């Protein structure tokens, strides 16, 4: 049913705008046209607005991530260059601009919804609940890149009647945005348990919702899993500690009331069901592979080899002239030695048939493995070692299943056929020296195990979350070549704001300009 609903939503979305992606986007972005939109159409338009930052697309991978988060997380190998840790304006500006286009779409949805009668609003409430959950997921990602951002007043140009000067938004603190989102998600999780959607409205919702196909149980799991992620992110901050502990405990103790993504079949993702629609992953290939972007990093390859990780052959393939040997690029080598090594064709790369040339690769939002790792950290901090271990080992099993499942989606035959894994191989990895829970004798060592599995699972697929978790935990502990040619000698603590904020939102930008540097830590980065 979900796949059918997604196909219908794609057909309707393209039909609305003359069957082209560009026209479809314009239909929702142009204030002169949105007056004819409905809640249902605007909901779909909002989902489409940021699809290229959910589905793996060229611009995001090549321009935004290739020289920033893939390096900061050592998810890839790269040749060291001067200025290599400073994020480029094109990537920052493009990512920022897309988020605020997306937020403007949400504000249009608010505007349309608020102009309805109370009876109509009650009928269509499901659209606002789910749209806001989706908005908060992507708002968290932008906050975690920059810190304070315009939010509560942002995207309201159309709501303000086109008054440009009165629509320049002030900055909200990152803490206040997190508080707003956590308050909202808690309320929405309860409301979704009691919401009554009429059969007629549900038909339309299933058509427009190409994230979860109108499945309310999936939206509940998405909502509560997102709560779990956000609460964990702020759990080390004194002002949030009590709330994080009590709310995570309530979520985990009441799975009927607060269900989570527990199985890979429940993963929250945008499925690609037809390559003839704009909902596809065709840009993943050039985005990841161009300009030697698809090189394995030494740290991840070494860990997988040393512990015989069954995900290795699903995630990676040997270099063209490496035979069956896997190897990754050492970030501590000098540029000349790295360049020479790259030219040999012996370095491993991410498996092209599983990832970059898999045109059916889904747009990932939440996976069961991440939920298990979040649980493991909570139980570890709560001194429940048995549950922490069980969740940790479950995450490894789920992650392995996940990567082999990605290959099953692929129609690409570039890489050699993938030899299936089995439980014996998975359990051997779980019991290996650097993975075995019982070999860790302190809580810090156990947290390092959890963090390492997050890093492997996220790889190049969930880079904003991977970088956020590494900054929050200072784990895994990586070594980087120091860039003495630039003031920013190592990976930054945050992204700076795009130049457009200095130029067009000057007065509001000036209130945060003092923290606009690459070294200011986010509020949850307390380690």
Task: Return the CATH architecture.
Answer: Alpha Horseshoe
Order of helices and strands: HHHHHHHHHEEHHHHEHHHEHEEHHHHHHH
Contiguous runs where pLDDT drops below 50 for at least 5 residues: 1-35
Name the structural class. mainly alpha
Give the biggest beta sheet.
2 strands, antiparallel
| Order of strands, widest sheet | 1-2
**Number of domain units:** 1
Question: Given the structure, what is the number of helices?
Answer: 24
Radius of gyration: 23 Å
InterPro entries: SusD-like_2 (IPR041662), TPR-like_helical_dom_sf (IPR011990)
Keywords: Signal
Protein name: SusD-like starch-binding protein associating with outer membrane
Keywords, please?
527 residues, mainly alpha, Serine Threonine Protein Phosphatase 5, Tetratricopeptide repeat, 24 helices, globular, disordered N terminus, SusD-like starch-binding protein associating with outer membrane, TPR-like_helical_dom_sf, SusD-like_2, signal
